[in-house]
Amino acid sequence: MRTFPRLAAPADVLVLMAVLAAAGWSWFSSPGSDGSKAAVYVDGKRMAWWNLEGPLALDTVEGALGPVVVEHGRGSARILWAPCPHHLCMKAGSIHRTGAELACVPSHLVVVVEGTDGSGNGVDAVP
Amino acid sequence: MRPAFRLALLALPLFLTSCNSKPVTRYWTAMDCNFDATVHGPGEGVSAAKALDLEVAESHRLDHLFTDYDASSPLSILRGRKGDTVVVGPEIALVLRKVLVSMRISHNAFDPGMHDLKQLWGVGTEKGHVPPQDSIDLFLKRRFGFLPKPDDTLPVPFRVLPDDRVLLLTDSLPIDLGGIAKGYSVDRLSRVLDSAGWPRHLIQGGGEIIAAGRKRSGPWHIGIKNPRRNDTIVGIIRCDSTCAVSTSGDYERYFIQDGIRYHHIFDPPTGHPALGGTISVTVLCPTSLDCDAFTKPLFVMGPARSRHLADSLGLQAYWIRETPDGMCSRQSLGWGDRLQASLPTCPVDW
Q1: What is the Cα–Cα distance from B93 to B90, expressed in whole angstroms?
Q2: Which domains does chain B have, with CATH numbers?
Q3: How many domains does chain A have?
Q4: pLDDT, tens only, B14-37
Q5: A8 with B5: CB under 8 angstroms?
Q6: Interchain contact A17–B (C-beta under 8 A)
Q7: What is the ipTM score, two decimals?
């Protein structure tokens, strides 16, 4: 009867499982992996972020022209008020798709929906 | 433990760590729109953060170069007198040449001298309204020297001469390079990341996208926005290697008066927004500058004329129309299996 060489001892398998568990923990504990979030950037700096799975809530973020009011929760986010001259961002409605963005350009402020896998639900970007 | 297995076990964390090098994204505003850039590792030069710092700095340089709000900007030199020859830098000259190409091959569907007309309509501001026809006619006469008819060839506002010199053919005309300058800028930003050692990246700014190189996980996928539900998509474009995608739609800047949506994409000979039924055009090109030069003309011309233009230039274009029964779409030749779209095809006569 043909015999196959044994590749690893039971102890080796235990070590392997420990390494895989550590790698998995490292992956899932990295930023952006705890559910869909709305993040607010001002001049490229991340100023605030909220879990979108929570109830509706209002928050302010300081933009270049003053405070901007963001509504977030129930899976979406929108800009409720901004001190921009034409209020284009307020008219842009709400966003929920991963990768979707709202911008208040005069306030130098961008709201982005960041997802769990960073893949934008299979789409890298939408012009 | 066998040596081969031990070696594999030691190498495993290194492999897993490299898999965990997630893309890094930066969001910021410049050129009157929002930008974002994502770099995919591994990089071969400076850190991702440093590369993105360079990216933001370059966007602000380009903002100053192409802005038409600042009286001291390099572009303001084009507001001179008819007959003047002015010297612009090589970057502005390159974009102006592309403007002239766009004007001529689209047969009047694009004009860079619409700045004051857009102000007259106030599209994208709180004061958006349909202006009196007299005011529109006054603008058209000042811009073109006459009231254009549909088949008239419109005069170009300048000529680009050797050594980055520009001959002005109209008095005190504010030149609006808006869209095309953004296309050029996105291309420039892509080269900055290439030079910084991050050849796999995605940049978007003001409706322009360039996806460079190829991700480790496979091709890029660019969505086509639903013009009437902006947070959803109606199609996906697959890019196997570097590509640029640009979209122009009537949903970006508009106002509604008497039930009609008046948007920011103008039909130059009429002085009115192009209301031919097209509500969105998406174009796939090798460079963002090319995309930008053709997206708005393809919107204004409507599918019948612009499909011919797109096919003759080898551009891949996708039009969306709004009808009382909902949205439908048409597409140019050459997409192959790179475009997956969910909207029904429009009737042949559109």
Answers
A1: 5
A2: 24-68+179-341 (3.10.520.10), 85-168 (1.10.3980)
A3: 1
A4: 444 444 468 999 999 999 899 999
A5: yes
A6: no
A7: 0.82
